[in-house]
Specification:
178 residues; mainly alpha; 57% helix; globular; disordered N terminus
Length: 178
């Protein structure tokens, strides 16, 4: 299948392994992409997926079906975005202050999908977005955070389905190579 990583000839692709995994195993893998039992159950329950696009469409559909309580639980389980290890300490201080202000205002961790952001731009993007989103009203921010969460889940699923690793390797929202 195009866009699907394979090992040696005759070795099933990551998507094929996901499609044929026992349901509890598939659900555990999905929970590492988005911590919502209902989302994982819905996505795993629609297997097999003929291709990555179908899997990602099912991910979106299941994420849109989450109740406000389920969304809040998924947001609460998200780790803060990672920043490059060599970032200077003043940046860490600014980021910690921004995260604290965000969590105080909205009651959950700041989530952002950093797919495609070069590692050297990660810190600036996080600070810019968190400061901008602090101006949102709670309902508006809940919608923005939900969209970022959906994007994160899709990015993590794509990596998993293409054999780039498990969703657990991407839980912190780092950009590729970051």
């Amino acid at each position: 299948m195009p866009g699907q990583s394979r090992g040696a000839p005759g070795t099933p692709s990551a998507l094929e392994r996901f499609n044929t995994a026992p349901a509890p195993e598939a659900e555990r893998a999905l929970l590492a992409c988005l911590h919502s039992a209902r989302w994982a159950l819905l996505v795993a329950g629609h297997r097999p997926y003929p291709d990555l696009a179908s899997l990602l469409a099912a991910s979106d559909e299941a994420a849109y079906d989450l109740s406000p309580e389920e969304l809040a639980g998924a947001l609460a389980a998200e780790a803060l975005p990672a920043i490059p290890a060599d970032t200077y300490s003043a940046a860490h201080t600014a980021l910690n202050a921004a995260h604290t202000a965000y969590e105080t205002r909205f009651g959950h961790s700041f989530v952002i999908c950093l797919g495609g952001v070069p590692p050297e731009e990660t810190l600036d993007r996080i600070l810019e977005d968190i400061r901008s989103r602090l101006a949102n009203d709670p309902d508006e921010e809940r919608a923005v955070a939900a969209e970022e969460l959906r994007r994160l889940a899709k990015e993590r699923l794509a990596d998993m389905a293409e054999g780039a690793g498990s969703c657990a390797n991407r839980r912190n929202g780092t950009a590729p190579g970051g």
